[in-house]
């Protein structure tokens, strides 16, 4: 079946069409469809912030069905941060509604003459003025548009940071689910598109409901018997804080110190001491998003693992109330917490080292950090330095490149890669830039990784087996994103096996894939993304790490004296992928995967 596409030109109108049937056959949908579209149809000279750049939303074939945690979406574009592909992932229900209203892929191109929002309701597609929404945060925007279009409408929106063109602005779905990592929100803002409202129909009919239900029953039983899943269902990804501290992955002051404050050891317990309410996806057996009740009238999101590692460990903020307020402000303003905390901690160190006369940020000063974050939601005549992001900020401060937490222009999450060679390799090679969440390789912090991961090793500083396991994570994450099922359920919690994913795809679509087919599908998506990065990334797609994390061992803490052997791991990584020693997919590998070879006009 060909994937159903709605293309919106914000200056000209819209068109309905189908992608070639081979796209679904070779890329399935979701992230795979985005990779195919960007590689084959984005003109090579297109600048990321140009109206001609496209913003592509896609939901996989499981979205809109009865499958657990299948309501999310992927959005991709050419990244203004890296020049390569940017992807952001979000959970929730918006992607399910997009498919129920009749579309697998939504392509946005052009630039509106004034701020608008898009409404897709049944067969009706309209652009409306968004003047009354300007300045509203993501939660308020979702509420206002639901009031206008009905409680059954799902809304994704930009916050004030996207309007102010902050480089790492995020799109937020339903006022609850941030689309991360960064890179897509500022492109949506450049198009003057404030929000997209979708009102869909009933759940989609599965090809083989019994087969789907059998796989879902197995997943539910696994979740119900898993202590690890139970921990994630208490505080989300912050359940991993304890093991992250034990391994040395939490470091202080932008990665300068290996020992963390004793207060960091108690954050998980302090989070669970608050009354909480789940805001997880409907029907999911492992809810992993929560709101804390600060008071009967005030709710704030539980800060995620990377938010705590960034604002907490790197920036030195140990007050839980301040951390939850920062998580709330990032959600409402539409900011990626990883990129925001990386920019703040980097600027703190630049000030500490005397690279700037500004002294507004000090380690641990929560009030100053909150003020700086709030300032990112305001449009200034002259751009705020923090709004540039680490990749561009390092060019402002001479001599700062060694400790700027970025790869290929993309901010690094604050879990220290010197504590895990798997994270180090994932951060260096991610074609979206330095964010290991691309592959969701959280295995080092899992007490008992599942048996379907290859060549397991319990030693975080043992490079043996790390390459094979990263490639497995990359491929499985790609197929999860292409199919439309939550990567947190499938990889953060390891609650979905490859066999169960194949059964869900077959039950939903009737397409029967083997394990080899799944591996090939994931590899095809990854290879196209690699081609795009090698051709268009601002640093030519070079796989490396900043010198601090590559050449400067920590002097203390559990990960002291450890440095990732990146050169040897890269050689093995390229070889296993079938790429050249320089990291380029070979013509033979492209032919094997059925990928069109790049040309000068591709």
UniProtKB/TrEMBL annotation:
Cofactors, names only:
[4Fe-4S] cluster; tungstopterin
Tell me the keywords, alphabetical order.
Answer: 4Fe-4S, Iron, Iron-sulfur, Metal-binding, Oxidoreductase
The portions of this protein that span the membrane are none
Database matches in Pfam families:
AFOR_C (PF01314), AFOR_N (PF02730)
User: What sequence ranges are listed for the domain Aldehyde ferredoxin oxidoreductase N-terminal?
Assistant: 1-202
Q: Give me the ranges of the annotated region Disordered.
A: 580-602
For this protein, the record's InterPro entries field holds: Ald_Fedxn_OxRdtase_dom2, Ald_Fedxn_OxRdtase_dom3, Ald_Fedxn_OxRdtase_N, Ald_Fedxn_OxRdtase_N_sf, OxRdtase_Ald_Fedxn_C, Tungsten_al_ferr_oxy-like_C, W-dependent_AOR
- Domain of life of the organism in this record? Bacteria
Compositional bias of kind Basic and acidic residues: 586-595
As for family, the record states: Belongs to the AOR/FOR family.
Q: What name does this protein carry? A: Aldehyde:ferredoxin oxidoreductase
Q: What is the lineage of its organism?
A: Bacteria, Bacillati, Chloroflexota, Chloroflexia, Chloroflexales
């Amino acid at each position: 079946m060909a994937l159903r596409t709605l293309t919106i030109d914000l200056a000209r109108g819209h068109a309905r069409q189908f992608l070639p049937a081979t796209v679904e056959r070779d890329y399935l949908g979701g992230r795979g469809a985005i990779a195919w579209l960007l590689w084959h149809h984005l003109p090579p000279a297109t600048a990321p912030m140009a109206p001609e750049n496209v913003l592509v939303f896609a939901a996989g074939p499981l979205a809109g069905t009865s499958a657990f945690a299948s309501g999310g979406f992927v959005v991709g574009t050419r990244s203004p941060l890296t020049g390569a592909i940017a992807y952001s992932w979000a959970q929730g229900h918006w992607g399910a509604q997009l498919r129920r209203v009749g579309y697998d892929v939504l392509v946005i191109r052009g630039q509106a003459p004034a701020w608008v929002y898009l409404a897709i309701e049944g067969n009706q597609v309209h652009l409306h003025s968004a003047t009354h929404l300007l300045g509203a945060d993501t939660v308020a925007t979702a509420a206002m548009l639901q009031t206008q279009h009905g409680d059954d409408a799902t809304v994704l929106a930009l916050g004030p940071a996207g309007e102010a063109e902050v480089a790492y602005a995020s799109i937020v779905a339903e006022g609850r689910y941030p689309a991360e990592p960064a890179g897509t929100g500022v492109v949506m803002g450049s198009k003057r598109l404030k929000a997209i409202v979708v009102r869909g129909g009933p759940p989609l009919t599965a090809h083989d409901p019994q087969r789907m239900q059998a796989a879902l029953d197995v997943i539910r039983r696994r979740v119900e018997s898993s202590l690890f899943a139970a921990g994630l269902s208490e505080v989300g990804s912050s359940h991993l804080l304890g093991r992250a501290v034990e391994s040395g992955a939490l470091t202080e002051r932008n990665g300068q110190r290996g020992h963390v404050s004793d207060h960091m050891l108690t954050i998980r317990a302090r989070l669970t001491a608050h009354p909480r309410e789940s805001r997880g996806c409907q029907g999911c057996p492992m809810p992993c998003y929560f709101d804390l009740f600060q008071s009967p009238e005030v709710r704030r999101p539980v800060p995620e693992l990377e938010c705590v590692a960034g604002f907490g460990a790197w920036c030195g903020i140990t007050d839980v109330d301040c951390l939850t307020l920062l998580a709330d402000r990032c959600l409402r303003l539409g900011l990626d917490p990883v990129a925001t905390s990386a920019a703040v901690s980097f600027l703190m160190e630049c000030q500490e080292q005397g690279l700037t006369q500004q002294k507004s940020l000090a380690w641990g000063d929560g009030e100053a950090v909150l003020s700086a974050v709030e300032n990112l939601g305001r449009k200034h005549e002259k751009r705020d330095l923090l709004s540039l992001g680490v990749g561009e900020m390092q060019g402002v401060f001479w001599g700062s490149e060694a400790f700027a937490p970025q790869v290929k222009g993309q901010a690094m999450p604050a879990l220290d890669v010197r504590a895990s060679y798997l994270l180090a390799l994932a951060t260096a090679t991610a074609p979206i830039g330095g964010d290991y969440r691309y592959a969701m390789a959280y295995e080092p912090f899992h007490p008992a990784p599942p048996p379907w991961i290859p060549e397991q090793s319990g030693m975080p500083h043992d490079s043996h087996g790390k390459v094979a396991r990263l490639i497995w994570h990359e491929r499985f994450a790609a197929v999860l994103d292409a199919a439309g099922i939550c990567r947190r359920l499938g990889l953060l919690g390891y609650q979905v096996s490859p066999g169960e994913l194949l059964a869900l795809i077959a039950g939903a679509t009737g397409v029967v894939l083997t394990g080899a087919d799944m591996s090939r599908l994931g590899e095809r998506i990854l290879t196209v993304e690699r081609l795009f990065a090698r051709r268009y990334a601002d640093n030519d797609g070079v796989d490396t790490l900043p010198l601090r994390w590559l050449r400067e061992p920590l002097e203390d803490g559990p990960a002291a004296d450890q440095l990732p052997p990146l050169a040897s791991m890269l050689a093995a990584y390229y070889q296993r992928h079938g790429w050249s020693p320089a990291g380029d997919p070979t013509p033979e590998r492209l032919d094997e995967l059925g990928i069109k070879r790049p040309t000068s006009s591709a």
